[in-house]
């Protein structure tokens, strides 16, 4: 858990720099901080001038990590946990490429079965989600139980990081399909985004009705793949979608 949160600090720094450069004046992006030569050599930096925006976002990441490990209840710091998890998700989405539609379909189909087995077939997923605290999940405050009902054993609804990253990679991939195929009727990216939102909403609704943990990929994967194939049919591009591959230079 500590290693994940430490990597989260680096992820916050990584995604924070372009955000700052978009909202702050240009001179801030170009500002440098002088590092003592002895420190630079000891850390192997290779440069005595470091970008100010990178140092600011790194300090923000380290501050979030320190706050996450502060000895206070998770109910008081779950937003920090979510921020670290979001940063990890955004970094993953920018670093990983699915390569081809068929690879994406196989990956999502495999994880569809994997998620169902570990949630419905064992208690492993529920134990990890509720007993192990690490910023690899998104926490949402659960509504209070109905009058006379037993209180929840865990005060949050949970969405695993993989339930964001895996379908998110597919949605990002469909944006590239849009760019290349230039559909005239329906957008593949728009359809995938809508399918993800509807699938996730359905998962939360079923979770709230049944009060039982749900494998999110049970709802997300069919929604995402199905939307892409359906829009491919509507656009008359089903074969092109099924055989779509990213260019090698795009993957890199």
Secondary-structure blueprint:
Blueprint: H1 2-23, H2 26-30, E1 32-34, H3 37-43, E2 49-51, H4 52-68, H5 78-95, H6 101-121, H7 124-131, E3 137-141, E4 156-160, H8 162-181, H9 188-210, H10 216-235, H11 238-242, H12 248-251
Antiparallel strand pairs: 1-2, 3-4
Helix pairs in contact: 1-4, 1-5, 4-5, 5-8, 6-10, 8-9, 8-10, 9-10
Report on the architecture of this protein.
The protein is mainly alpha-helical. Helices cover 67% and strands 6% of the residues. It contains 12 helices and 4 strands. The strands form 2 sheets. Strands 1-2 form a two-stranded antiparallel sheet. Strands 3-4 form a two-stranded antiparallel sheet. Helix 1 crosses helix 5, helix 5 (78-95) packs parallel to helix 8 (162-181) and helix 8 packs parallel to helix 10. 26% of the residues are buried.
Give a quick set of tags describing it.
single chain, 252 residues, two-stranded antiparallel sheet
In short:
The chain has 252 residues and is mainly alpha-helical. It has helices at residues 2-23, 26-30, 37-43, 52-68, 78-95, 101-121, 124-131, 162-181, 188-210, 216-235, 238-242, 248-251, and strands spanning 32-34, 49-51, 137-141, 156-160. A two-stranded antiparallel ribbon has the order 1-2.
């Amino acid at each position: 858990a500590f290693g994940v949160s430490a990597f989260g600090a680096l992820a916050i720094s990584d995604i924070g720099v372009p955000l700052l450069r978009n909202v702050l004046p240009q001179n801030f992006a170009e500002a440098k901080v002088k590092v003592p030569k002895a420190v630079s050599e000891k850390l192997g930096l290779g440069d005595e001038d470091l970008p100010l925006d990178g140092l600011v976002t790194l300090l923000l990441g380290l501050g979030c990590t320190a706050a996450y490990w502060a000895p206070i209840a998770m109910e008081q710091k779950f937003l920090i946990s979510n921020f670290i998890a979001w940063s990890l998700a955004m970094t993953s989405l920018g670093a990983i490429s699915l390569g081809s539609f068929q690879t994406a379909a196989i990956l999502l189909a495999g994880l569809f079965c994997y998620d169902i087995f570990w949630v419905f077939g064992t208690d492993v997923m529920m134990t990890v989600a509720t007993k192990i605290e690490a910023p690899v999940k998104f926490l949402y405050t659960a509504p209070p139980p109905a009058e006379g009902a037993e209180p929840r054993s865990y005060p949050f609804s949970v969405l695993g990081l993989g339930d964001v990253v895996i379908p998110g990679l597919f949605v990002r991939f469909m944006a590239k399909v849009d760019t290349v195929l230039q559909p005239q009727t329906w957008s593949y990216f728009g359809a995938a985004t809508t399918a993800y939102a509807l699938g996730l909403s359905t998962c939360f609704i079923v979770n709230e009705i049944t009060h039982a943990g749900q494998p999110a990929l049970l709802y997300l994967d069919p929604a995402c793949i199905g939307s892409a194939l359906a829009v491919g049919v509507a656009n008359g591009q089903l074969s092109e979608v099924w055989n779509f591959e990213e260019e090698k230079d795009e993957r890199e």
